[in-house]
């Protein structure tokens, strides 16, 4: 996928992903690639939040709205929390193209679970 995390923080997780190598047959950035970027960013933020409780974060629900096509270059995802609780987290992830145009809006909810033995 070529995802590169450029900022690590519970309040704002940022990463980039190249369009090249992540296209669907018509040459557009694959919607599933947007979903992978969104889940990666939101899950990392959720995991960082969960660690303070000795918990892990597991994806519960992901929804993506694809607003416009990305054809080349890099897309950037910015994940910001909507809710940071003791049992769930919800992040909004906004994906933009190199011109700053929104290409996708996603929302990820994770459930926080106790760390499994040995983890």
Protein described:
The protein is α+β, with helices and mostly antiparallel strands. Helices cover 18% and strands 46% of the residues. The protein has a six-stranded antiparallel β-sheet with strand order 1-2-4-5-6-3, with helices on one face. The mean pLDDT is 97.
Largest sheet: 6 strands, antiparallel
The overall pLDDT, averaged over residues, is 97
Which percent bin holds the helix content? 10-25%
Uncertain segments: none
The best one-word shape is elongated
Structural class: alpha+beta
Order of helices and strands: EEHEEEE
Number of helices: 1
Number of strands: 6
- What proportion of the residues form beta strands (DSSP E)? over 45%
The whole-angstrom Rg is 14 Å
Q: Between the first and last Cα atoms, what is the distance in angstroms?
A: 26 Å
Strand order of the largest sheet: 1-2-4-5-6-3
Pick out its properties:
119 residues; alpha+beta; six-stranded antiparallel β-sheet; 1 helix; elongated; Hotdog fold thioesterase
Fold blueprint:
Blueprint: E1 4-7, E2 13-18, H1 31-51, E3 55-66, E4 74-84, E5 88-96, E6 102-114
Antiparallel strand pairs: 1-2, 2-4, 3-6, 4-5, 5-6
InterPro entries: HotDog_dom_sf, PAAI_dom, Thioestr_dom
Keywords: Hydrolase
Domain Thioesterase: 26-104
What's this model, at a glance?
The chain is an alpha+beta fold. 18% of the residues lie in helices and 46% in strands. The model has no long low-confidence stretch (mean pLDDT 97).
């Amino acid at each position: 996928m070529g995802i590169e995390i450029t900022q690590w923080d519970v309040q704002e997780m940022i990463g980039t992903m190249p369009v090249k190598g992540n296209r669907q047959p018509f040459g557009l950035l694959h919607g599933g690639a947007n979903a992978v970027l969104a889940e990666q960013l939101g899950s990392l933020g959720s995991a960082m939040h969960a660690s303070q409780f000795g918990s892990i974060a597991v994806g519960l629900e992901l929804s993506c709205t694809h607003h416009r096509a990305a054809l080349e270059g890099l897309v950037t995802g910015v994940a910001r929390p909507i809710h940071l609780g003791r049992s769930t987290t919800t992040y909004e992830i906004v994906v933009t193209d190199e011109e700053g145009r929104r290409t996708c809006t996603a929302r990820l909810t994770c459930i926080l679970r106790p760390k499994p033995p040995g983890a």
